[in-house]
Amino acid sequence: MSARVAWVFSLARCGSSVIAYAAGAPWRVPVADEPFGPWDRTGPPYSYPPEQDELRRRYWDVGEHLTPEVVALAQRVFDAIAGDAGRVICKHPHDSIRPEEFASELPEHRSIFLLRNPLMRLNSLLVRGWTNSMSEQYDLPRFKTVAQRWLDHPHRFTFEEFRARPRVFFGRVWDAWGWDHSPADAEAAVEYSRSHYHASSRQLGDRKPRHLVSEQRLALPEDAIDLYLEDDFVRELMESAGWSTRRDDYLGTRPG
């Protein structure tokens, strides 16, 4: 029987790592960490099956589409990673998988969509020097594309919700995936999130610092702040999500 697959769609620096790993922690459900990404992850620390390297190359060769061959190969990778657990969480912080293809080609897979305050996400990219991960205009076009997908998705989540009410957050995630769960499972997921720090997918299992690195200081250029806050779509999105649209909140040094 094929493994059950639950997805976390997001963008980089939205918290998908800690959420994916913590959500699987109560049952030791493994995570397929960006198997469609541009990296060969058949070696340490992931040690995915050889088919993962073939999957990502074939996926990119066909223009990042879920062709029948790609889907069949992906299921083989998922099955191998899932092992005896019988289920796996696929973390996909990219804009490459089109929602309509996911719905038509992977109808049995469940998914959630995670978003973060776009200016704090951008700050995280800049603080960490991940400028190669950004498109033009401080990644604004990509963010808008993915934010529209988030708005269209039936199971929307924000990183800020996770920070504010993690137990409720994980319960909602598991409900969206169709997983049975208990309060004890929520406690286990929260404990994992508190004791493990996923600064990036290359740093699995590090102890969590007192403050997130990306929130200790603000590194946003003023033109980037203005670009986002003066975009009507982004501003309306931020207001509806409860994210500050005050320019001064993104300047200077954050307290604490």
Distance between the termini: 50 Å
Strand order of the largest sheet: 2-3-1-4-5
Percent in helix = 40-55%
Structural class: alpha/beta
Low-confidence stretches: 201-206
Estimate what percentage of residues fall within beta strands. Answer: 5-15%
Apparent shape: globular
Sheet with the most strands? 5 strands, parallel
Oligomer: single chain
Radius of gyration: 18 Å
Number of strands: 5
Our count of helices gives 11
Order of helices and strands: EHEHHEHEHHEHHHHH
Overall average pLDDT: 92
Notes on the protein architecture:
The chain has eleven helices and five strands; from the N terminus they run E-H-E-H-H-E-H-E-H-H-E-H-H-H-H-H. The protein has a five-stranded parallel sheet with strand order 2-3-1-4-5, sandwiched between helices. The model is unreliable at 201-206 (pLDDT under 50). With 256 residues, the protein is α/β, with parallel strands linked by helices. The chain is globular.
Which features characterize this protein?
single chain; 256 residues; alpha/beta; five-stranded parallel β-sheet
Summarize the structure.
45% of the residues lie in helices and 9% in strands.
SSE order and pairing:
Elements: E1 4-9, H1 16-24, E2 31-33, H2 51-61, H3 68-82, E3 87-92, H4 99-105, E4 110-115, H5 118-127, H6 140-152, E5 156-158, H7 159-164, H8 166-177, H9 183-195, H10 222-229, H11 232-241
Parallel strand pairs: 1-3, 1-4, 2-3, 4-5
Helix pairs in contact: 1-9, 2-3, 8-9
